[in-house]
Amino acid sequence: MSVRFAIIGGGPAGNTAATVAASLGAEVTLVERDLVGGAAHLRDCIPSKAMIATGGELSELTRARSMGLHAEGRLDVAALRERVAGIEARLQRSVTELLESQGVRIIMGTGRLTGADRLVVETTDGTEELEADAILLATGSRPRIPDWATIDGERVLTTRQAYPPPEIPEHLVVIGSGVTGVEFTHMFSALGSSVSLVVSRQQVLPYKDAEVAAVLEAEFLSRDVRLLKGARAQSIVRDGDRISVSCDDGRVAAGSHALLCIGSVPNSEGLGLDAAGVQTDERGCVPGDRHCQTNVPGIYSAGDVSGRLPLSSVAAMQGRKIAEHVMGLTARSHRHLDYDKAASAIFTEPEIADVGLVEAEAFAVGRKLRVTKVPFSANPKSLINGDPRGFVKILSDPATGVVLGGSIVGQNAAELISVLAVAVTNGLKTVDIVDSLLVHPALAESLAEAAD
Ligand SMILES: Cc1cc2nc3c(=O)[nH]c(=O)nc-3n(C[C@H](O)[C@H](O)[C@H](O)COP(=O)(O)OP(=O)(O)OC[C@H]3O[C@@H](n4cnc5c(N)ncnc54)[C@H](O)[C@@H]3O)c2cc1C
Q1: What is the Å distance from ligand 1's center to 125 Cα?
Q2: pLDDT single digits (tens) 350-389
Q3: Do 256 and 155 touch, CB atoms closer than 8 A?
Q4: How many CB atoms lie within 10 A of CB 78?
Q5: Could you tell me the domains of the chain?
Q6: Model confidence over 113-140: pLDDT tens digits?
Q7: Which atom of ligand 1 is nearest to the CA of 110?
């Protein structure tokens, strides 16, 4: 008899687990209450990147002047909305088609555990009970809303309400300067808004390399973004078409819209966790072991609800590993996920990407490192492209040359970091990068130079 695998949540974690398990012969049922493809994925990740791409094109037009090309850009917000909606719909369709082609049964409804090997699904037609040999909780997360903010969906927004926007805000106050906050700051300033950014620490991106953050801050200042450093927002007041955000140091940021970018909370309530004896941590996340299995054997958690790195890429990889574990493929899944080696990117301008060790943290614990840094201004392709901003930094073990991490700031950083991600994951040495015959002229040549 084939393994019966039930999955609650159809985001990157759930749909990857479903397709991989089905391709390995499992009888898979996927329960989704909203969007097959994932609420966070289709409502946050994809539309934000689509809008950033439009902002990027506008910036390109400005840069093109230095290449002898004079063209004017005029933003058509209706067309932008249509484009974003079109991308979402297309991705949703392709995920659904892939699941169906693998024989995954999709039930549109809300799932809840009723025991360690059973769940109930509430649909518009009634309820359905399912039994399963393995269950995956992949219910994602939603934006965190603090007590002091009243979201009205018009002028005071969470990230899910910021796109596609009915209008481009005249002056947006972004609260929070982590990855999401800086991406929205970049996106709306590129699309023509004035932006004020409330930064609770002394640097944007507080957990990133200080040199990386400095490049982004300089870029924001060159676009007249107002940085309120060391300020924590305490209240948001709306008065007609205006909002004002008051901070704990007495400063007030006034604008036309406020956008909260202060993290997310896991979708773990109402999931019947008690009925199955599944434990949560202090944040309400459902943690798992190295196989992503919760404290109840046979019940797994993946994606944002698991409390690990909140990235689509990590969610999908967890889903893949879980499917292999459920199907007993221990040989293929012998390499456990090492979250410290996950590559990530920030889609600002310039782009920022990193992987592995962060320099300051490594030095703080006394780790010896070889750090090499090469600016893109020395790279011919950067000059040809008319954008010499940024650098490549590689961290390696001084004794062995093994690549331990790196940061890239500049054009196509999110693509280029893949080279370092492969090196970090597979224990490659700097010499392996240096000895590779790369294309010329190419931005990737700076990787080889930094590795040398
Ligand atoms: C603004 C923003 C931008 C981002 N950009 C990126 C990026 O560029 N790159 C990146 O890697 N990550 C990005 N992320 C993070 C990424 O979106 C999430 O990490 C990812 O979507 C998590 O996948 P998931 O499968 O855990 O959850 P989701 O994608 O949220 O999917 C969970 C699904 O479960 C469903 N569900 C919940 N409860 C139930 C229930 N009881 N019954 C049935 N269904 C249920 C939900 O409807 C949802 O569809 C971004 C996040 C934000 C907020």
Answers
A1: 26
A2: 999 999 998 888 888 888 999 999 999 999 999 999 999 9
A3: yes
A4: 9
A5: 4-142+265-331 (3.50.50.60), 156-262 (3.50.50.60), 350-451 (3.30.390.30)
A6: 999 999 999 999 999 999 999 999 999 9
A7: 42
